[in-house]
Amino acid sequence: MRGAINQRLYVIYSAILSLFIINMFISSNVLTYIVGLLAIPMLFISFWGANKLFRILGCVFISFALILFIYAGLPIYEIPLYMTSTMPLLAFLTLLPWMNSIVRAGRFDRRINEVMKENVSDLGKLYVRSSFTTYILCSFINLSALSLSQDVLLENMSKMKKKIKDSFISRTTLRAFAVALVWSPMEIIVAITVDATGVSYLSYLPWLFLCSIFVLLIDWLSSNKRFNTISYEVSSVRRPREIQPKQIAKQIAQLLFALTIFLVVVVSIGNYFDLNFILSVTLVILPFSFGWAVMMKRWRSFFAIGWSTWKQRTNSMQNFVVLFLSLAFFSSSLNETPFLQLIQQPFLASTERPLMILVLIQVTYLVMSMIGVHPIATIGVLIEVLQPLYSVMNPLSIGMVMITGALATATVGVYGVTVTMTSMNTKQNPYRITLRNLPFALLFGAVGTLIGFLLL
């Protein structure tokens, strides 16, 4: 019975989230309540398919939410109204696989990853090459690019000693992943922060991109120096296809052009219809991907890959459904009590020392990631806590630190998806990956904090 439900989760999720999106345009009180009611069984159905860590987080959030809800003296029948505030994020995640699919349908991922395999004499050069390709792909296909790059490197480095191979892969792929997503409009942390702070994405973009490139270049310089004494011999498992630099450059240019058009469409639609950033991106992803597939004459591949990928990813969203719906109940209940003001006190008391506030945000992310709390759960609480500071500090500064702090944990979160995936792919201890990348995470966070401080 449970297996049959898990295979049809994409139908359940899509129906509920479609109702929610429709209601955002018609603003029906009845439909709002119905969607909230449906969110409750949606949460419980997802609970049994979620990982242990997310079930624990969900239970913690729900337990505290119930305590706060009862403390606030709110009637039980209003619970559904407190369950929907994070549904835009779930809708966003549901449609994101279609953007990944168009990149795969156009075979951009295969061609760009071929850059790793040609004319490399030492690991220093391979590091820069593989970091660059992972960076480009992560900007478009997010987590899928991480697995793809690691698979290519595992194959190409099969002749290397395991210790060197593990160190190399856990550095180059995780670090490129983190700095690539820090400015991507398809990264959920970026979308959440843009909407929470009320600052335009275009205001963030140059500073996030500057931070990304600066940290990436520092990593390239230091890692090239670290690995350039180790010679590299490509594995003979598979003969690499001869790359064509002009073709690769052309496809990278096409990806960047497509991303630019995507951003223009998202911002234009958001401004014209007065929509928040997350909803704008959500509404644009599918028609934009389809239009791109038609222009490339790859729409059959797009639908074949997209439909399969979408069903698989949507059926595997239990972790995020549990996290987001329980977080919505918790944050909405917290807003109805005086406890929120108590949590805000340390931040409000430091308004005369804004640098301390920015550092405190970074430290909060780092500590919470080390004990297994997902950065989205952390940012969900920080958004409520930091809101009063927007009137006394530049919200752009706060947003910069919220984004960089969250993405820096992608390289060190022991129980996070990225570190866990890397640990499984390379068969190494996740704590070793964390220790190896901790200096980078601190550097990334420090650069983000410095830029945020200069923007005050």
TrEMBL record:
Keyword annotations of the record: Membrane, Transmembrane, Transmembrane helix
Chain segments annotated as transmembrane: 9-26, 32-49, 56-77, 132-154, 174-192, 204-222, 248-269, 275-295, 316-335, 355-383, 395-418, 438-455
Domain of life: Bacteria
Keyword Nucleotide-binding (UniProt): no
Protein name: Citrate transporter-like domain-containing protein
